Amino acid sequence: MKFLRLLISLVAVAMLSPFSTARAGNLSGLKLAVIPQCTAQDRENGYTRVCVERLDQGEIEEVKSMYFADVIRYKAVENGLILAAKMKKSDIAFFDRPAFGGEITTYLEPIDSDNYAIKVRFKGIEKAKLNPLLLNFAGRPPFSLNIDGRDPADRTVVESWPVVLQKLQNQGVRFEVISFPHAEHLEAKSIKVLRGSNCLQTIVACRVIYDTDGESLESLISNAHAAHISLDNFVLVGVPNPNEHRTAELLKGVDQNRFNAFLGFVVTSLRQTIEKGETPKGRYTAGFSNGGAWAFDALLFHPNLFDGAIVMSPAEWELQSPVQLKGKKVFVGAGELEPGFLKTAREIEKISGSLGAEVKTSYSKSGHSMNTWAPVWNMALKNLNEN
Questions:
Q1: In what side-by-side order are the strands of the sheet with 308-314?
Q2: What's this model's pTM, rounded to 2 decimal places?
């Protein structure tokens, strides 16, 4: 299955390349699905798709004179980003040129013996928040280039998790990890739970969010904290799924036994442990990539249980059994630099509305990363706090 191949590689190689066949720690076999070359039609259309161009002579001279605090840097131009690297041939671990992966997947072209560069074109990309990875510098693991063209007023400083957690605990928040043993068709789970200060004794005035990408719960919480979003009335439940059965547990039709076992675990054992027989003010699913598809499926399979879903960069998905979603909230979004996930998000947006849900969207000029997921998550929490 096309989506299965794509998503297994995403998990195996993290953010290196959506179509990579390499394993983390052994990138010499990496195969990049690189951004296409720009055409005359792209220029005429105003760069409405992502493409790459070689630099003109003036830009080449500018790169040659650049100061590099590290190996890589960038420069923003209108509807474009110039990515540059200063590397010797001996610095290139594999491939014949520097290569970026993750949110921007491309090779850099040589402009002299030690300088490489390429111009990435996309309308408005110079205002994006991106973290592409240099993949092949010898002796170093892939490391990111921090690109942030957002208006200063829109930027937030995301502190480290230990700092954020200490601040939240000082405000009365409680964080714990609950372990569940292995069961038939289900891996053992270590569940992360953050209870807001108003949700310690009872949850009847709280909203519970079951996030099936719990390995990133700390990052989502830290981003919400940076955006000054109150967590006092939330119970955030992170269900990590980094194991080899992630795809089977989260995508219907891959291994239906594992899918059913995981969904059953969330709606029965986990829910009972978290909620202790109480009915919260609201109950929501959440996830990104495979987890985004699962979040929407869980809502469709249990519309009488869940009040909505936070669907971030959903994997390839199809509607099987339409149900009424009147009164439900669906928060959906994706990055404009992840076309497959963006297409699915748009489809879920349309379907949710047609089924009667209240739909809120967030589409960022970013890729398959927290740069895309944090805005969707924050949008959802802000909306739920206000209503």
A1: 174-180, 189-195, 234-238, 207-211, 282-289, 308-314, 329-335, 358-364
A2: 0.89
